[in-house]
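Hi P.,

Sorry for the delay on this. The queue was packed all week, but I finally got your sequence through. Input first:
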Amino acid sequence: MVMRAFFKRYIPEFVYGAVDGTVTTFAVVAASAGAGISSAVILILGIANLIADGFSMGSSAYLAASAEHDESARDTQKRASPKIIGLVTFLAFVAVGSVPVLPYLFDVVAAMKAPSITLFYISSLLTAITFLTIGFIKGKVGKQSPWREAAITLLLGAVAAGLAYFAGDVLAAWLGVQL
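Then the structure:
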């Protein structure tokens, strides 16, 4: 019951961190796959994104919440903790956002040398499932249609991923990058 209340209170930060982490990490994967970059480099770029962008998101959420908290502290004592807001945003970003790089991690660690298109398809499938799950959870906790929220989250994530993939493909061709 305590976890449910905690999760309900911090669902906006969870969704914000989880969606942004998944979108930006998959954008790195998609752009890199579009440019034909190796699994090891995709993994390095993905992990660097998770750490740097996750910290940026968490610290920005903390700073924004603390500014709001300071301003409204006179009005209510029921405000969410800015530290927890920042932490939830960061943890959701890193934990959920790591899903798109998991196939590349397994490929590198197990030295599988799987075809890059196969890894990209697996990453795409896992990312789609992740978007659906985030949207479903958002809908359930927010007492909205879970399937509608899942579909919206998947659609927005797919658009971002498509843009990133084609940007990587087009830029690699335009710049004459051959990997």
